[in-house]
C-alpha cells in the first residue's frame, strides 16, 4: 500500500488531477476519498485542489507568477487587460507574459534585466501616460502647443495625435481623460 501512496503523491506533484490505476491493464480512475488513508493530509488537499482546478473547464487558467504565492487564477477579462493584481498576494503582474509587472515597458522588452532606476523610470512612464516614438520606441510626452513632434533621438517627425491608438483612446476615456 505504501507504493500506491508514493505513486499518488508523485502524480499530485506533477499537477495531475485525474489519477488512473498504475496497472497498465486497468483503466479505473482512483477515487480521492478512497486514496486519503494512503497519502498525507497535505497531498490529499493538493489532490482535491487539482480536481477543483481541472473541473473549471473552458476557462483561461493560470497561476500568480510570484513563486511565494503561485495562486490559481482564472482570466475573467478574456485577455482584455495586461496589468493584473493577484487577489492573494496583492502584487501586480503582466497577464500577457505572465511575469511580475514591467511598468512602462513592452512585453517584448520585459525579460531584460533592469536596475532600480530603469524600473522607477518605467513606473514614471506608466504614471504619466507617456506614449512611445514610433521611430525609436523612446517615451515621449506632449506637454502642449503644436501637435507636431520631433523625436530628439532619431529626429523622426510625427503628429502626436496620430500616436494615440483606439485602445489608448478607450483606456483614457475609461479613466476620464480627454484625448482631443
What shape does the CA trace take? elongated
Number of strands: 9
Going across the major beta sheet, what is the strand order? 3-4-5
Classify the oligomer: single chain
Mean pLDDT: 74
Distance between the first and last residues' Cα: 72 Å
Residues in helix, %: 25-40%
What is the radius of gyration? Answer: 24 Å
The helix count comes to 5
Whole-number count of domains: 3
Describe the sheet with the most strands.
3 strands, antiparallel
Percent in strands: 5-15%
GO biological process, one term: protein ubiquitination
Cofactor: Zn(2+)
Domain RING-type: 1-180
Enzyme class: transferase
Overview of this protein structure:
This is RBR-type E3 ubiquitin transferase. It catalyses: [E2 ubiquitin-conjugating enzyme]-S-ubiquitinyl-L-cysteine + [acceptor protein]-L-lysine = [E2 ubiquitin-conjugating enzyme]-L-cysteine + [acceptor protein]-N(6)-ubiquitinyl-L-lysine. Its cofactor is Zn(2+). It holds the Pfam family IBR. Its EC number is 2.3.2.31. The protein is α+β, with helices and mostly antiparallel strands. It has 3 domains: 3-56, no CATH class; 59-129, no CATH class; 130-179, no CATH class. Helix content is 29%, strand content 13%. It has 5 helices and 9 strands, in the order αααβββββαββββα. The chain has helices at 2-13, 32-35, 41-55, 116-128, 166-174, and strands at 61-63, 72-74, 83-85, 92-94, 99-100, 131-132, 139-140, 148-150, 157-159. The chain has a 3-stranded antiparallel sheet, with no helix packed on it. Strands 1-2 form a two-stranded antiparallel ribbon. β6 and β7 form a beta hairpin. The protein is elongated and about 75 Å long. 9% of the residues are buried. Mean pLDDT is 74; it is low at 164-172.
Amino acid at each position: 500500500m505504501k507504493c500506491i501512496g508514493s505513486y499518488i503523491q508523485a502524480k499530485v506533484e506533477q499537477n495531475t488531477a485525474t489519477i488512473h490505476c498504475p496497472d497498465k491493464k486497468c483503466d479505473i480512475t482512483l477515487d480521492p476519498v478512497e486514496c486519503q488513508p494512503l497519502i498525507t493530509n497535505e497531498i490529499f488537499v493538493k489532490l482535491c485542489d487539482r480536481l477543483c482546478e481541472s473541473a473549471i473547464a473552458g476557462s483561461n487558467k493560470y497561476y500568480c507568477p510570484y513563486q511565494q504565492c503561485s495562486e490559481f487564477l482564472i482570466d475573467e477579462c478574456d485577455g482584455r487587460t495586461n496589468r493584473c493584481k493577484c487577489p492573494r498576494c496583492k502584487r501586480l503582474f503582466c497577464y500577457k507574459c505572465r511575469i511580475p509587472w514591467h511598468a512602462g515597458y513592452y512585453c517584448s522588452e520585459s525579460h531584460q534585466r533592469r536596475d532600480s532606476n530603469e524600473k522607477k523610470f518605467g513606473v514614471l512612464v506608466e504614471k504619466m501616460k507617456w506614449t512611445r516614438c514610433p521611430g525609436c520606441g523612446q517615451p515621449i510626452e506632449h506637454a502642449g502647443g503644436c501637435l507636431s513632434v520631433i523625436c530628439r533621438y532619431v529626429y523622426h517627425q510625427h503628429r502626436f495625435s496620430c500616436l494615440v491608438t483606439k485602445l489608448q483612446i478607450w483606456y483614457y476615456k475609461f479613466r476620464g481623460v480627454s484625448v482631443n
